[in-house]
Amino acid sequence: MQNILEIPLQKICSAREYTLSLLEDLEPEDWFRMPQEGVTHIAWQAGHIAMAQFRLCLERLRNLQPGDWDLIPKEFLKSFGKGTTPSADRSLYPEGTEILAVMCRVHEAVRIEVPKYAATDLTTPLRNPHPIFKTKLEALSFCAQHEMLHAGQIGLLRRLIGKSPVR
Does residue 76 sit within a domain? Predict the structure, then answer.
């Protein structure tokens, strides 16, 4: 693996380990509980993490490839994309187990694909820059930060629904 890709990939993997530790003891109904004063639920946070990792680490890094839509349903992108509003209507979302399966499939693809990337254009400006990152390397680095931000929200939601803190 290109040395320049090792640190972002390690951070992405560490963030995922932490997120999974927040999800492992949830009951099916916990995924969709919205505390009265809340505006989101764990299902939306986890689905958003999967969608963002797909976009940041696969689509932005190497463009879409054959088989990518086997990792994540297109409906996922619509349900959990930036700017969507989490709904208390559970029927609008896949079950927590399916969200977790998509998270795992996307993450495994990232673990496989990122080390294979040639890394010759990581500092080239993106065609569609983001306000927070401008290059592919910055997008990869942001992925771990983004996941930790949403893991923090999952941690708070856990507390609001009566779960013990993980750490």
Answer: yes
